[in-house]
Design brief:
This protein is mainly α. 64% of the residues lie in helices and 5% in strands.
């Protein structure tokens, strides 16, 4: 007879083996299919209680997967297949992104500034060819953020690798975080 701690360690060791992990995943899938509501409630409650931990774990797992060439190849194939099957949705998403960028581009931009924006895209394309590494034109302050919006202007653009851009997500650059208005800081003052 084992104590609870020894039993837990033994089960964890077995789950870390390929066959044990596969059996565990199959058992959990079957349990979820049989009764999904309580499992979802339990997961949602855990996520709500451990939001930062859940986000950090999700980001770490995502970055690990993105660095694996086999995973990237498989993921690119999956995305390409999905895009071919859902041309209407892809078109709508592209249109939405263009419209966001168009609304984020002020009408007062001069022709020189518009040419500078075009130059960023040309630099990214040239770096793609020169290095063989995919580069993106990134907005330093994101156009799609929820609490604030960046503009599609030359001084808000930078060229970076696709991996760096994926890791960045929609975050305020560290040097500007102190300038954002935080309502929680202003609750006591009544503003």
């Amino acid at each position: 007879m084992w104590c609870k701690k020894c039993n837990r360690e033994s089960v964890a060791r077995y789950r870390n083996t390929p066959e044990g992990g596969e059996k565990h995943r199959a058992r959990e899938k079957a349990r979820f299919k049989a009764n999904p509501a309580p499992v979802r409630e339990r997961l949602n409650a855990w996520r709500a209680a451990n939001l930062e931990h859940a986000r950090a774990a999700n980001n770490a797992a995502r970055l690990r997967r993105m660095k694996d060439p086999e995973y990237r190849k498989k993921e690119n194939a999956r995305i390409s297949k999905w895009a071919k099957e859902n041309k209407v949705r892809v078109g709508a998403k592209t249109k939405t992104n263009r419209m966001l960028r168009a609304r984020a581009q002020p009408k007062w931009l001069s022709a020189i500034q518009k040419a500078q924006i075009q130059e960023f895209y040309e630099i990214a394309a040239a770096r793609n060819i020169q290095t063989g590494i995919k580069h993106h034109v990134d907005h330093i302050f994101a156009v799609k953020a929820t609490d604030w919006r960046g503009l599609h202007v030359p001084w808000n653009l930078q060229v970076m690798t696709a991996t760096e851009n994926d890791e960045k997500w929609i975050k305020v650059p560290k040097e500007f975080e102190h300038q954002l208005w935080n309502p929680q800081k202003h609750v006591r003052s009544g503003f």
